[in-house]
Amino acid sequence: MLESRLIVEGGRKIEGEIRVQGAKNSSLPLLAASFLSGGTSVIHNCPALSDAYAACRILSSLGCKCKREQHSVIVDSSDADGFAVSDGLMREMRSSIVFLGAILGRTKRCRLSFPGGCELGPRPIDLHLEALKKLGVRIIEDHGVLDCTCGQRPARCDITLSLPSVGATENIMLYSALGSGETVIYNAAREPEITDLGGYINKCGGDIRGLGSSTVVINGVPELHGCEYTVMPDRIVAATYMGAAAATGGELVLSGVCPQDMYSCMSIFSEMGCGVYPYTDKIFINAKKSLSAVRTIRTMPYPGFPTDCQPIVMAVLCRANGSSMIVENIFENRFMAADELRRMGADIKTEGRVAVIEGVNKLLGAKLRAADLRAGAALIVAALGAEGTSVISNVRYIDRGYENIEDELSAVGARIKRI
Ligand code: EPZ
Which residues are phosphoenolpyruvate-binding (predicted)? Predict the structure, then answer.
């Protein structure tokens, strides 16, 4: 099948309003959690993304009945008793490791292969496995396959994460929600997606407290039921569209967002000289023609500046006046956009986890290749503000996280089409 490509004609202002999709990074663990209940859940505002479809395929392979009606996914896990996920399904998306905690939580055993690495470098799961072992899970690793069985779970288990891993926090919550015993996670991830997952589990009858703080307490309950739940908005997609407005000197209203999840992103755009105005569930951004460089941006766990927004902000800073520095503290190989941006005339130097961007007064359209999800989105942002036409390939990476990105951007003035 021929890969689709995006053709972007730069130089047009982004102006209008975009309703932002549901959060990919909340919908995936939420779909995994629906396996726990043994009932029927209706999950609204679930983005129509390749990763979400992959999650539904995993649920079906476990015996769930999955149906999608527009942006609502109905999962009936009453007859589901599977505990193994095939290698093929595991490789479809890196975050499929989050099924480990959910399957163990309900069936007390699980067999799945190590998740594929991804473009961001090795994606270890040592923190996930260490935590589950502390919770009494026996894990045999054999030729890339994890064979897990649950032993006696301690009445109380304190787990301190050496780093606030989002995935590890989610897997511990998913495993500890059902059953007896109290699990306390210290140095837990505080991302809004964690709060969303905990909100869903609690609505299913779970008992999780401290969501959004560094100490999360999970009291196992004897059973969970299904529920109706709405996925939170995608703060990274919202920031991406803010980047498109900033890169084209445009102005944009983002609706259906949670500004309180986005202060670290909003402040960077303000520092660049954009007007950023948050309202209850909207953000208004207007970008002057010329932007200012931002001296230092450090990616940090939430509530710090999110690593997923880093490539997007790098693309905007390519044309800001002055010199900006980005320090990528979360992933070891997350400057994949830099090579492609240089093909457009950007002046970016990367050294390990540090990138220095010297603003240039214009970028030129070029043939570009998306290397990963957010680096691909960064290329679109840069192409929108460039002179001339760009052709972006490997669009499948972008489709993992953005629903109909070309339609959304065309509706607010961009000249972008998929071929
Ligand atoms: C989640 O990945 C997100 N993915 C990522 O978004 C996001 O970048 C990341 O959190 C950080 O916010 C989903 O939610 C599906 P981590 P996750 O565990 O859970 C290291 C996107 O673009 N680590 O917090 O994998 C790890 O290598 C994606 O939407 C270990 O060393 O992130 C990384 O350097 C990309 N051992 C750092 O911690 C472990 O056991 C953060 O990882 C686990 C993680």
Answer: 24-25
Protein residue with its CA nearest to atom 21 in ligand 1 = 308
Ligand-binding site membership of 25 (annotated): yes
Distance CA 230, CA 209 (A): 19
Task: Give the Å distance between the CA of 167 and the centre of ligand 1.
Answer: 6
* 407: CB partners within 8 A, 6+ apart: none
Query: How much is the pTM?
Result: 0.97
Structure token digits, residue 30: 């939420």
Please report which confidence band the pLDDT of residue 3 belongs to, taking 50, 70 and 90 as the band edges: confident
φ, ψ of residue 211 in degrees (nearest 5): -60, 135
Mean pLDDT over 213-234 rounds to 98
Pairing between strand 40-44 and 228-230?
parallel
281 CA from centroid of ligand 1 (Å): 27
What does R_g of the chain's alpha carbons equal in angstroms? Answer: 21
- Whether the link from the prior residue into 115 is cis, omega within 30° of 0, is no
Q: Is 358 helix (H, G, I), strand (E, B) or coil?
A: strand
308 marked among binding-site residues: yes
Distance CA 29, CA 175 (A): 12
Report phi then psi at 49, rounded to 5. Answer: -125, 160
- Of all protein residues, whose CA lies closest to atom 4 belonging to ligand 1? 25
Residue 213 to residue 222: CA distance in whole angstroms: 25
State yes or no: 295 annotated in a binding site: no
Residues serving a catalytic function are: 118
**Cβ(171) – ligand 1 distance below 6 Å:** no
| 21-47 residue pLDDT tens | 999 999 999 999 999 998 999 999 999
At 355, is the pLDDT very low, low, confident or very high (cuts 50, 70, 90)?
very high
Contacts of 418 (CB under 8 A, 6+ apart): 4, 5, 6, 7, 395, 406
Region 105-123: what's the mean pLDDT?
80
Report whether residue 176 contacts ligand 1, using a CB cutoff of 6 Å: no
Residues in the chain: 419
